[in-house]
Design goal:
The chain is mainly alpha-helical. It is built from four helices and two strands, in the order ααααββ.
Length: 93
Protein backbone atom coordinates (compact mmCIF):
# COMPACT_ATOMS: atom_id res chain seq x y z
CA UNK A 1 0.00 0.00 0.00
CA UNK A 2 1.42 3.37 -1.03
CA UNK A 3 1.52 6.04 1.66
CA UNK A 4 0.14 9.40 0.59
CA UNK A 5 1.88 12.54 1.85
CA UNK A 6 -0.61 15.14 3.03
CA UNK A 7 0.00 18.79 3.81
CA UNK A 8 -0.74 20.06 7.31
CA UNK A 9 -3.85 21.76 5.94
CA UNK A 10 -5.10 18.47 4.43
CA UNK A 11 -4.42 16.59 7.66
CA UNK A 12 -6.38 19.23 9.58
CA UNK A 13 -9.30 18.84 7.15
CA UNK A 14 -9.26 15.03 7.41
CA UNK A 15 -9.33 15.28 11.21
CA UNK A 16 -12.13 17.83 11.04
CA UNK A 17 -14.16 15.59 8.71
CA UNK A 18 -13.54 12.55 10.93
CA UNK A 19 -14.81 14.46 13.99
CA UNK A 20 -17.99 15.55 12.19
CA UNK A 21 -20.83 13.17 13.03
CA UNK A 22 -22.49 13.35 9.62
CA UNK A 23 -19.37 13.07 7.45
CA UNK A 24 -18.96 9.44 6.44
CA UNK A 25 -15.70 7.57 6.15
CA UNK A 26 -16.67 7.01 2.51
CA UNK A 27 -16.71 10.78 1.94
CA UNK A 28 -13.19 11.03 3.36
CA UNK A 29 -12.11 8.17 1.09
CA UNK A 30 -13.56 9.87 -2.00
CA UNK A 31 -11.86 13.15 -1.21
CA UNK A 32 -8.53 11.99 0.22
CA UNK A 33 -8.19 8.32 -0.78
CA UNK A 34 -8.04 7.06 2.83
CA UNK A 35 -10.05 4.04 3.90
CA UNK A 36 -11.58 3.94 7.40
CA UNK A 37 -8.64 1.97 8.81
CA UNK A 38 -6.19 4.55 7.42
CA UNK A 39 -8.24 7.42 8.87
CA UNK A 40 -8.08 5.70 12.27
CA UNK A 41 -4.28 5.32 11.92
CA UNK A 42 -3.93 9.00 10.99
CA UNK A 43 -6.11 10.07 13.92
CA UNK A 44 -4.08 7.90 16.32
CA UNK A 45 -0.83 9.41 15.02
CA UNK A 46 -1.94 13.06 14.96
CA UNK A 47 -4.00 13.31 18.15
CA UNK A 48 -3.26 13.09 21.85
CA UNK A 49 -4.03 9.62 23.20
CA UNK A 50 -6.95 10.89 25.30
CA UNK A 51 -8.48 12.76 22.34
CA UNK A 52 -8.11 9.71 20.11
CA UNK A 53 -9.82 7.48 22.69
CA UNK A 54 -12.68 9.97 23.03
CA UNK A 55 -13.08 10.12 19.23
CA UNK A 56 -13.05 6.32 18.87
CA UNK A 57 -15.65 6.00 21.61
CA UNK A 58 -17.87 8.50 19.78
CA UNK A 59 -17.47 7.00 16.29
CA UNK A 60 -17.41 3.30 17.12
CA UNK A 61 -20.68 1.86 15.86
CA UNK A 62 -22.08 5.26 14.82
CA UNK A 63 -24.35 4.64 11.83
CA UNK A 64 -23.94 8.15 10.42
CA UNK A 65 -20.21 7.52 9.87
CA UNK A 66 -20.97 4.71 7.37
CA UNK A 67 -22.95 5.36 4.19
CA UNK A 68 -24.29 1.79 4.04
CA UNK A 69 -25.72 2.03 7.59
CA UNK A 70 -27.37 5.43 7.24
CA UNK A 71 -31.10 5.75 7.20
CA UNK A 72 -32.89 7.77 4.52
CA UNK A 73 -33.22 10.75 6.86
CA UNK A 74 -29.45 11.30 7.22
CA UNK A 75 -28.55 12.24 3.68
CA UNK A 76 -27.06 15.71 3.79
CA UNK A 77 -26.96 18.35 6.48
CA UNK A 78 -26.04 22.01 6.23
CA UNK A 79 -26.24 24.37 9.15
CA UNK A 80 -28.37 27.44 8.40
CA UNK A 81 -25.53 29.72 9.50
CA UNK A 82 -23.00 27.97 7.26
CA UNK A 83 -22.17 29.70 4.01
CA UNK A 84 -21.13 28.06 0.78
CA UNK A 85 -18.12 25.78 0.92
CA UNK A 86 -15.45 26.42 -1.72
CA UNK A 87 -12.56 23.97 -1.98
CA UNK A 88 -13.35 22.76 1.56
CA UNK A 89 -12.88 26.18 3.07
CA UNK A 90 -15.91 27.43 4.91
CA UNK A 91 -16.38 31.10 4.16
CA UNK A 92 -16.06 33.38 7.15
CA UNK A 93 -18.89 35.72 8.12
Amino acid sequence: MEKIAFTDKEIDRIIEMAWEDRTTFEAIEVQFGLKEKEVIELMRKEMKASSFKMWRKRTNGRTTKHAALRGDGANRFKCKSQRAITHNKISKR
